[in-house]
Each structure stands twice: as structure tokens, then as C-alpha cells.
Amino acid sequence: MPKRTLKFRIRQDGLVEETVEGIEGQSCDQITKRIEEALGSVQTHEPTSEAYLQPQLKTQSISAEIH
User: CA-CA distance, 33 to 58, in Å (whole number)?
Assistant: First the structure.
């Protein structure tokens, strides 16, 4: 499983900058929603390049023979 990181930077003017790393697609919005609601209103939202990637689905093939 890839490393997932949430980083928060509190600026001197009181604004909080949040960075999400290691999460592909739009699922980062679901992960950070409750934190953002607790912190207050979101002024800007800038997706990273990872937000535009499609999450990789892991599949496994199993062969079976019926006699």
C-alpha cells in the first residue's frame, strides 16, 4: 500500500494550508472533508496532479477446472 500523507501548515495570518499526498483520484476529498469542516470554511481548492489519476484496481485471476 502506498504511503498516504496529510500535511497542514498554519500560516502567521491564521490560514491553514492542507496538502494531500499519495491518494489518487477524488477520494482525497472524502478523506479530508471532516477535517476541513472542523477547521472552518475552505477559501480555495487546488487539486494536485494525483487528483487526475485514476485509482489502480487490483485484480486477481483464479483458474479452476470442473471435473
Answer: 26
